[in-house]
Amino acid sequence: xxxxxxxxxxxxxxxxxxxxxLLDRRDGDCGDFAAARxxxxxxxxxYEKRRYAPWETFPLGLVMxxxxxxxxxxxxxxxxxxxxxxxxxxxxxxxxxxxxxxACHTYLETAESLAAALAAEGVELLxxxxxxxxxxxxxxxxxxxLTVWGRWYGSPDGAVVEFRRMRMSxxxxxxxxxxxxxxxxxxxxxxxxxxxxxxxxxxPVPVRPVPVPQRVRVVEVGLTTAADRVLLDTADLEEIHHAxxxxxxxAAARLLAGGDPVPGHDxxxxxxxxxxxxxxxxxxxxxxxxxxxxxxTWSITTSRYYQVCPAQAHLRExxxxxxxxxxxxxERGRNAHSWLEVAHARGRPCAAADLPxxxxxxxxxxxxxxxxxxxxxxxPYLLRHLTVxxxxxxxxxxxxxxxxKLAVYDAQADVMVLANPDLLRRVDGRLVYREQKTSAxxxxxxxxxxxxxxxxxxxxxxxIAEGVFGDTTGLVELEQLTPASAEVLTFDAADPAxxxxxxxxxxxxxxxxxxxxxxxxxxxxxxxxxxxxxxCPDRVDHPDGPDASGSTAHAxxxxxxxxxxxxxxxxxxxxxRPDSRVEALAAVLAEPGADDxxxx
Length: 600
Ligand code: SF4
Ligand code: SF4
What we know:
The protein is an alpha+beta fold. The chain has helices at residues 31-37, 59-73, 77-87, 94-119, 178-189, 237-257, 300-308, 310-317, 328-345, 372-385, 450-453, 455-465, 496-515, 580-589, and strands at residues 10-11, 16-19, 42-43, 126-128, 132-137, 143-147, 151-154, 160-167, 191-193, 207-208, 215-222, 228-234, 279-281, 296-298, 397-402, 406-410, 415-419, 423-427, 430-438, 475-482, 485-492.
């Protein structure tokens, strides 16, 4: 192929630099993004000066700097940490600094145990500053290279080579995936880069020969858990070459061919952003009058995290490993949503026959989606949904899109806005945007406060009013389900009063986040649910408070005044006064945690 499909670039598509970890892209990730990223000499047709964050955005890079100082300059780890954190080009958030300290100590302890295991075999490995690379091509204009990002070790005679991939949390890889096979291939067949600074800047990269190893190891190190996993330890280099030819090459070819564009977190940094048909452009959508510090991604989820605590939002954005809790409320919300998504994808209204008793042999739509006990817990909510199913009519229903992914670029704010409506449809030709919400008991959300308490409704109104869906009229609905009730609130996105209220809600949510460069902690009772609290020096500990595990041992009211459902662990609305911060916290608690590694 010459260029990734559905995108337009200038430059040379025949120079390819593929990082082995890019082969780990998951189903649902954007194919075009990876295809463009692997081509360093392709650029958007319109030049854009890149703006960088005024804070450190790559904690792993800081870890690498510290380890370089320890391994190549013999600087004690404490001094190396102090120097790196002090001299970092940009501000390092205190939570990031805490994780970097932990990660460096963890790595060095793991390295010691790996060295001890090899020493028992009489093998000594020394750190290698210069990474290895495989590259080839008929000319500098047609070079293909395979790189890996991590730490290299070799025996003094070059017979043993070890590549260590660093994982922010814990080892995740296996021996039989193309990324691991590619790393083994670079270790077995690669040459050493002459100057590490040229790895990403020069084509072809100047290299120097190294002895062909007799033994290759690929190891993953978990920087949070202190676990290591030897993915591969072999003297069978032929097998490594075979796996490269049979697995890695086809996987790389598929990646370079691109695929369907899938909007998401990659869009903000994607070279195809300006020409990609999957991104809608809506300058002024957020109502901000400046472009902030640099291009960023914002969603209602970002806004909720930020409302609970800016520090938590920042650490989550940097994908620091978290202590994720789960509860029956989290599980119920996730299962109800996935059931509704699958049911609506059929294009017909949900019916009682779709919801057999939880003891039935055949669970219908739920089969394969969830466990029987999970279905038992979600079913009362889904039964209530039958009376308000959006596909029931009245009116002619068309263009049904359950859970579409939307990416909308606001050039005026330089923000990529992401949204995931639960369902889009047209009723008699008019767009209707529906959000669905389950809760154990009513949360006091009514027409007068819904835009404020459920800000995704306000964003939906703004998206319609800005013409993101083609026309500037449409309806926004909130479906609220409890085991005892179903209610739909409707907002008309053509009503100037609704649009004005929605714009105010969105601007109130996005403005403080857009201006913030410090992301200060706002400790409070919510710290005990914060997955980032381990790294946060400002956290408030509540040893006697209930946790969010959904245990039936929960007190209905905790000492700090937050009220929980004793059965599900769900944070309840304030009995007398619904509150947007409590709603944000409840929504944050109801979101499953991510075990996500940053792409690089
Ligand atoms: S802009 Fe987004 S959807 Fe389009 S190619 Fe890039 S990552 Fe994919
Ligand atoms: S522990 Fe508390 S103060 Fe610290 S990031 Fe989490 S919510 Fe914020």
